Amino acid sequence: MKKIIITLLLLTFVFSISYTSFASTGLSDVDGTKYEEAVGELMKLGIIDGYPEGKFYPENVLKRNEMTKLIIHAYGMTNDDVETYYNSMTSGDVYTDVDGNWAMKYIYVGSDLNLVSGYSDGTFRPNEEATYGDAIQWCLNILYRKNVIKSNSKDLITSLNLLNNITYSSETESITRGNASIMLWNTINIIKKNSIKILRICFRSC
């Protein structure tokens, strides 16, 4: 009986995340490019969006506050979740340059969850451009917090396929909206695959 129940759960889960033929995003600078699937799926999840003029501007770079919000949402938190969590916080990191920034709550919540991090001088530098190094580490932090990996070391990048379909020169380079979307979608897919693996292990042992 247990195996039947687990099988049904596994099938339900697999079907719920199965890829269907991908529909157009409606964004003229994304459709037909390598960004189409990632951007489209993240849009469906409410993680990212395009602009009113029907474009995404995938080559534009992201700021650290913008990347923080995307990380929070990719982690699975809604705006309401962020508000609730922030209001329940009694302590945590205090940055000297965050108060008054539109992303203040995202930054403090993300920092408290060890998803994002600031600098040793007590700043977060929210309006500076996010780097590939920032994005990689923060995506690894998501996987670590989700118990997908036992360490958030960057040594795991290759084995995780976190950077599939992403090209960049160095970790100090500013990350683009398009490549950030691919990295976040890769991260979510890693979590999904790990969930299926856990269900299969449970099926064999039950």
Structural class: mainly alpha
Q: What helical percentage do the residues reach? A: 40-55%
Give me the number of helical elements: 8
- Name the average pLDDT: 87
Number of strands: 0
Low-confidence stretches: 4-11, 13-21, 198-204
- % residues in beta strands: under 5%
**Measured distance between first and last alpha carbons:** 10 Å
- What's the quaternary structure here? single chain
Order of helices and strands: HHHHHHHH
> Judging from the principal axes of the Cα atoms, what is the shape?
globular
Describe the structure.
With 206 residues, the chain is mostly helical. Helices cover 50% and strands 0% of the residues. It is built from eight helices and no strands. The longest helix has 29 residues. It is globular and about 45 Å long. The C terminus is likely disordered.
Label this structure with key terms:
single chain, 206 residues, mainly alpha, 8 helices, disordered C terminus
Summary, kept brief:
The chain has 8 helices and no strands.
Helix/strand layout:
Elements: H1 2-17, H2 36-44, H3 64-75, H4 79-88, H5 104-112, H6 132-145, H7 157-160, H8 177-205
